[in-house]
């Protein structure tokens, strides 16, 4: 399923993952992340898929287009119970 770069960017921001850390997790350059998040038309399908996989590895579940609710994503279970210091 194709995930729009706006959703990928939103998921990264909600998870509070830096562009650099996401790039490392996806096995691509930080420049590729910046291009994707600026909606550059040169962004490849491979880049989009790599970023999607990396975010899914963090527990994000992407939701396909729904005629009533549109598309979106779910966060990992318990995400909002966690803080940066682990409490």
Topology:
Blueprint: H1 5-15, H2 19-26, H3 30-37, H4 45-57, E1 61-66, E2 70-74
Antiparallel strand pairs: 1-2
Helix pairs in contact: 1-4, 2-3, 2-4
Short description:
One of its GO terms (molecular function) is DNA binding. This protein has helices at residues 5-15, 19-26, 30-37, 45-57; strands spanning 61-66, 70-74.
What would your notes on this structure say?
There is one protein chain. By secondary structure, this protein is of the alpha+beta class. It has a single domain, classed as lambda repressor-like DNA-binding domains (434 Repressor (Amino-terminal Domain)). It is 46% helix and 13% strand. The protein has four helices and two strands, in the order ααααββ. A hairpin with a 3-residue loop joins strand 1 and strand 2 (70-74). It is globular, with a radius of gyration of 13 Å. The mean pLDDT is 91.
């Amino acid at each position: 399923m194709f995930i729009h770069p706006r959703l990928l960017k939103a998921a990264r921001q909600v998870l509070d993952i830096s562009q650099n850390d996401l790039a490392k997790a996806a096995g691509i350059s930080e420049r590729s992340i910046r291009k994707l998040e600026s909606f550059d038309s040169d962004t490849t399908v491979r880049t989009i898929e790599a970023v999607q996989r990396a975010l899914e590895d963090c527990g994000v579940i992407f939701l396909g287009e729904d005629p009533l609710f549109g598309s979106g994503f779910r966060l990992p279970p318990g995400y909002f119970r966690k803080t940066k210091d682990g409490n």
